[in-house]
Every structure is written in C-alpha cells, then in structure tokens.
Amino acid sequence: MNMGRGLAILLGAGLLTGCTASVQPAGTKTSRPEATRKSGSTGRPTSGTAGSPSQPAERRVVLPAKAGGLNRVQGQGQLSDIPIDPGEMTPGMNLVAAEFVTPGGSVENAVLVVAVDHVPEDTSQRREHLWRGLLDRIGWTEGASAEPFPPGPLGGSLECFLASLAETGQVVCGWADATTAGVALFPDSDLQTAAATFAAMRADLER
C-alpha cells in the first residue's frame, strides 16, 4: 500500500473488506521476512489483567493528538492512507494509523503506528501479520527474534525486535491483548528505548 500525506486515519471495516490476513506460524520459513518469538510469549492477557478468552475486555483503539509524550503528525505532513496491509477487517473493527514525533522532531524520524481492535482471531497472529507488513515496508529480509518487554498497566504482551545489523537502528514493536493488536516502527532507536516508549504510547492509543 502507498504511503501518502494528508489526513490521519480512523477507519472501520466498511472501507477495508478487501484486506485479508494470511498468517503463518511464528518461525515458519516463508518468502517474506518473519519475526519469530522467544518461548513463553503470548498475546493473551497475563494473570491479573483485564480480559480473558471467555470475557475479553471491550477495548478500542483511538487516535490521540499525543501518545506517550509524542505528538501526532497533523496537517500537511500527516498520513493520507494505510501504510501497510492491516489484515482482514470484519464488521465492528476499527483501524488507526498515524505517525508520531518527539516535540520538535522531524517527520523523517517519526514513529509509525498501526493498530486494530475487536480482532476475530488470536491477537498475537494479527500482530505478526502487521509485523510482516512493516518488515516488507522497510525491506528487511534477515529475520528477527522478538523479545518480551513489560506491557504496562494494560497487560497482554509487548514484544520488540531489531530490524538492523547494528545494535541501534530500526526497531519494530507490537502489543497484543484479548481483543486488540498494534505495531510500531521506530526508525532510529534501540530495543529498550523503543519498548519503553511504545508501552507509554499504548496507554494513549488503547481505551
């Protein structure tokens, strides 16, 4: 999908029924770059968090003006369409896509975020689908191993991996809980910094 500039997106299923997820198990060899997970990782809420497979938390993704202290890119420089394939969008689902920058930062170093709610399948599978979209976008073909990080007060799981040959560079992060999944691309960061920033951003992106 093309990445243009114009209006940031808050779209429902009606505009996206042609997008269909095709999810392979983590670690499967495919022609597309694949992010594998370290053992013990899950997209379902951890003990003591809101939501369960029988009674999932009715959370929704939103598009705030600020997320984790970063400002959403608005006006002439903001996104005009969906930068990656979000997967199948069914009735009742919402999709948000936007770029966020540090105060005084440039759009060239913006953090790209894409998130969906009311996911009908396992949310960790949807997260992996979104990850592959980000990896296709940046042309990363070397593979990666996602590491778990503290997800913050919303629970579920938050994982990140480095799509760079150096210890700093392009970091991809994603969260998954009972009903939502979201991913972000940090163009110039390290794992610890990106994970902490994304956890803070998630608190503003999910309600």
Largest sheet: number of strands, sense, barrel closure: 10 strands, mixed
Number of strands: 10
What's the pLDDT, averaged over the residues? 80
Task: Supply Rg.
Answer: 15 Å
Number of domain units: 1
Give the termini separation.
Answer: 27 Å
Residue share in helix: 10-25%
Task: Output the helix-strand order.
Answer: EEEEEEHEEEEH
Query: Any idea what the shape is?
Result: globular
Number of helices: 2
Uncertain regions: pLDDT < 50 for 5+ in a row? 1-33, 39-54
Strand content: 25-35%
Q: Assign the structural class, choosing from mainly alpha, mainly beta, alpha/beta, alpha+beta, or little secondary structure.
A: alpha+beta
Keywords:
ten-stranded mixed sheet; 2 helices; single chain; alpha+beta
How would you portray this structure in words?
- Helix content is 15%, strand content 27%.
- The chain is α+β, with helices and mostly antiparallel strands.
- The chain has one domain (9-21, 40-51, 58-205).
- A hairpin with a 7-residue loop joins strand 7 (144-149) and strand 8.
- The protein starts with 8 loop residues before the first strand and ends with a helix.
- This is Lipoprotein.
- Residues 23-59 are annotated as: Disordered.
- It comes from Actinocorallia herbida.
